[in-house]
Amino acid sequence: MSFGEFSRSMRAPAHFLLWCTACLDPENFRDFELVERKQLSHNVAKFRFALPIPTSSLGLPIGQHISCRGKDSVGEEVIKPYTPTTLDSDLGHFELVIKMYPQGRMSHHFRELKVGDYLSVKGPKGRFRYQPGQVRAFGMIAGGSGITPCSKSGPQLASVARAILENPKDATKVHLIYANVTYDDILLKEELEGLSEIYPDRFKVYYVLNQPPENWNGGVGFVSKEMIQAHCPPPAEDIKILRCGPPPMNKAMAAHLDELGYSKEMQFQF
Ligand SMILES: Cc1cc2nc3c(=O)[nH]c(=O)nc-3n(C[C@H](O)[C@H](O)[C@H](O)COP(=O)(O)OP(=O)(O)OC[C@H]3O[C@@H](n4cnc5c(N)ncnc54)[C@H](O)[C@@H]3O)c2cc1C
User: Fold this and answer.
1) CA 124, CA 55: separation in Å to the nearest integer?
2) Does domain 3-125 bear CATH number 3.40.190.10?
3) Are 179 and 142 in contact (CB under 8 A)?
4) Among 144, 141, 140, CA closest to 221
5) Hey, which residues does 169 pair with through a beta bridge?
6) pTM
7) d(CA 76, CA 71)
8) Are the C-beta atoms of 19 and 57 separated by less than 8 Å?
9) Is the ipTM of this complex over 0.85?
10) Cα–Cα distance between 128 and 172 in angstroms, integer?
11) Among the options 20, 23, 55, 65, which is catalytic?
């Protein structure tokens, strides 16, 4: 195994990151080569892009995202935000999990992207700032509602959860409510299940589906006040509830949280 293969297959200890070079530029797009593409379902694929050297890290703070530039089906430029599912402790590469919509403009670009092609990326972007131990517990409410699935929510909150849980110096607990339309819409289910198996005392995920399959034991319908009460930490100065979904869902969740007594300081919306 070459050094490159070795370091790509390993996650690096924190001190090793000091040796690494961050690759993102907030002002200019940089091109990254697609080295692997894996279809996860009929319209979801995982894309792995190489960083310049095997010890490079992307340089993306927890909870922030990148801008990707591509061309739509008529050749016009399109720029959209995406959240890598990898962290800066994953060296030499970064990954995106992309849900591709038949009529989606950037979806077209990703559908056409082949191994060996390059993707233009700029960043970091985003308002979220996190210091380990900043709060005792996070509640996270993610997803879509009704007929509006939200592909950003899974990657966004899963990456925050993973960064918190995998940091040995961080004891913060994470309670995720993840709402989707159907079972197949749940992005990153395996990764989330993996985290709850490894960190059973620190990470809990509760799925809510609009159209559940038979014998479903999660929540059904829209995320309700009762679900928040049962699956998120109660209001306190040292907790925060993160919301990540389409605007109607965020609005409904903000109203629920206000009614349940969560102050503005206890809430954050991506
Ligand atoms: C911070 C942030 C991070 C994100 N991270 C990710 C990520 O990691 N992975 C990912 O897949 N996406 C992510 N998204 C969503 C992404 O930015 C695009 O919105 C998405 O890829 C669709 O873009 P598009 O140009 O293909 O579709 P558009 O051209 O904008 O939409 C055209 C048509 O596609 C369909 N469509 C588009 N979006 C949806 C939707 N959500 N639900 C149902 N139909 C839809 C509709 O028919 C719509 O009319 C993120 C968004 C944000 C804001």
Assistant:
1) 19
2) no
3) yes
4) 144
5) none
6) 0.86
7) 5
8) no
9) yes
10) 16
11) 65
Is ligand 1 within 6 A of the CB of residue 187?
no
Per-residue pLDDT tens for 4-47?
344 444 454 444 444 456 799 999 999 999 999 999 989 999 99
Give the closest residue (by CA) to ligand 1 atom 30.
104
d(CA 131, CA 86): 18
- CA 246 to chain CA centroid, Å, is 15
CB atoms within 10 A of CB 3: 10
For β-strands 267-269 and 239-244, DSSP reports them as parallel
**Could you tell me if 234 and 136 are in contact, meaning their C-beta atoms sit under 8 angstroms apart?**
no
Which residue type, as a one-letter code, is found at position 191? Answer: E
Cα(151) to centroid(ligand 1), Å? 6
Q: Does domain 137-269 have CATH number 3.40.50.80?
A: yes
Could you state, in order of their start, the residue ranges of all structural domains in the chain? 3-125, 137-269
Query: How far, in Å, CA of 254 to CA of 251, rounded?
Result: 5
Q: Which listed residue (232, 244, 256, 262) is catalytic?
A: 244
The two structure tokens encoding residue 257 = 């949280």
The answer to whether the CB of 157 is under 6 A from ligand 1 is: no
Each residue's pLDDT tens digit, 44-73: 999 999 999 999 999 999 989 999 999 999
Per residue in 177-202, is it b (16+ CB within 10 Å) or e — as a string? bbbbbeeebbbbbebbeebbeebeeb
Q: Which helix (H) or strand (E) holds 258?
A: helix 247-259
